[in-house]
Design a protein that fits this description.
CATH topology of the largest domain: Butyryl-CoA Dehydrogenase, subunit A, domain 3
Mean pLDDT: 97
Number of strands: 10
CATH class of the largest domain: Mainly Alpha
CATH architecture of the largest domain: Up-down Bundle
Helix content: 40-55%
Bound molecules: flavin-adenine dinucleotide
Distance between the termini: 32 Å
Radius of gyration: 21 Å
């Protein structure tokens, strides 16, 4: 088993870290406070290929394999301190662009992928509803046959990029009797479609530069051409999006954990109390040693899962295990980083409190930790 990176992968990692550190961090405290999503930074990321990492070049992407995508997103999470921007990019790429690439018709791919990869369009993935979160397929949004197409009514909530997005994958019940398997269909819908509107925008504790809101569909008529995948194939498409998101979104978290580790080491070396660096106190040093162990385990798990995503028929169990472990490691690493920084860690100027606020959502989005444990238990026959 060869764990080394290829020369291309090393170059990819180094160039993304350099780009992110130089281009994406300035003015972050203000953007976070004011909840600003930056289209300018979005375009800069597109210019270096982030929004189309795995997409074939003929549709405007970079054509990378799934492990190289993980390496790229890990580098982005390490170099970019704007967790909201990284999250918006990942939601766009993994839950919108990838399903369009893997399940879209050639016409859908030609229509949307160039804009989704060149930074001119922002993608969304809309499944959660006010009364159906973890119980995703208890959705109330309905699509009924009408005039050579479908009429969609319903409300989606907590949609990442909802307030600024241009095109959404919308899940709707097309056959309530079939339910989860065969009864849900995904539609690829342009925000300009009559009946499509952005509802409430939410204020959040973290990831504040990533806008999240409701999408409302009122008698929205869409043609058959908007069906993504096949009629009744929504659960398959959702599974694809979640496998990619659970593995590759947390790749960016691995990068964030490494940054938190370095921040903690630097502070523990320079902050003195009782006449010595606080890193000399075992209670502090052990927190940092544990962080290093969790980082290495998280990285190995993520790289293996990313490889399996591209090489095996099914990586859903890997996805749940990886999502669970890495997100919980991120929350622990960011909480420990605040603790190591003492009172300064609690203050905004040191920027570690923002990392903690950004981390908390990671055990909720893409399926909560409790749901990942349920999936893993089910795979084990429990
Ligand atoms: C920052 C952020 C971005 C998001 N982006 C998107 C997006 O782009 N698109 C989208 O569609 N959705 C998005 N979501 C929604 C997200 O997927 C849901 O919040 C998540 O699935 C949980 O659903 P819920 O909030 O309704 O909580 P609930 O399902 O109501 O859960 C509440 C609590 O009960 C627990 N629970 C529920 N059922 C069980 C069970 N069977 N066993 C054990 N525990 C259980 C949960 O784990 C949780 O702790 C986002 C959420 C966040 C926080």
């Amino acid at each position: 088993m060869d764990f080394s990176f290829t020369e291309e992968q090393k170059l990819l990692r180094d160039s993304i870290i350099k780009f992110a550190q130089c281009e994406l961090n300035e003015g972050l405290a203000d953007r976070d406070r004011e909840q600003v999503f930056s289209r300018d930074l979005w375009r800069k990321c597109a210019a270096i290929g982030i929004q189309g990492l795995p997409v074939p070049e003929e549709y405007g992407g970079s054509g990378l394999d799934s492990l190289s995508c993980a390496i790229a997103l890990e580098a982005l999470g390490y170099g970019c301190r704007d967790g909201g921007l990284v999250f918006s990019l990942c939601a766009h790429l993994l839950a919108c662009v990838v399903p369009v690439w893997l399940h879209g018709t050639d016409a859908q791919k030609r229509c949307y992928l160039p804009g989704l990869t060149d930074g001119s369009l922002v993608g969304m993935h809309a499944i959660t509803e006010p009364d159906s979160g973890s119980d995703t397929f208890a959705m109330r949004t309905r699509a009924e046959r009408a005039d050579n197409g479908w009429r969609i009514n319903g409300t989606k909530t907590f949609v990442s990029n909802g307030p600024v997005g241009d095109v959404a994958i919308v899940f709707a019940m097309t056959d309530a009797k079939k339910g989860f398997h065969g009864g849900v269909t995904a539609f690829l819908v342009d925000k300009a479609t009559p009946g499509f509107s952005a509802g409430q925008k939410f204020e959040k504790m973290g990831l504040r530069t990533s806008p999240v809101g409701e999408l409302v569909f009122q008698d929205m008529h869409v043609s058959d051409d908007t069906v993504l995948g096949r009629v009744g194939g929504g659960s398959v498409l959702f599974a694809t999006a979640m496998d990619w998101e659970r593995i590759l979104l947390v790749a960016s978290h691995v990068g964030a954990i490494e940054r938190l580790l370095e921040t903690s080491i630097a502070y523990a070396r320079t902050r003195s109390q009782f006449g010595q660096a606080i890193g000399k106190f075992q209670a502090v040093a052990h927190k940092i040693a544990d962080m290093k162990v969790q980082l290495e385990a998280a990285r190995l798990l993520t790289h293996r899962s990313a490889w399996r995503l591209g090489n095996l028929r099914n990586a859903s169990l890997d996805a749940s295990i990886t999502k669970l472990f890495v997100s919980e490691s991120l929350v622990k690493a960011s909480l420990d980083t605040v603790q190591i920084h003492g009172g300064y860690g609690f203050m905004i100027d040191y920027e570690v409190e923002r990392a903690l606020r950004d981390a908390v959502g990671s055990t909720i989005y893409s399926g909560t930790s409790e749901m990942q444990r349920n999936f893993i238990a089910r795979w084990l026959g429990l």
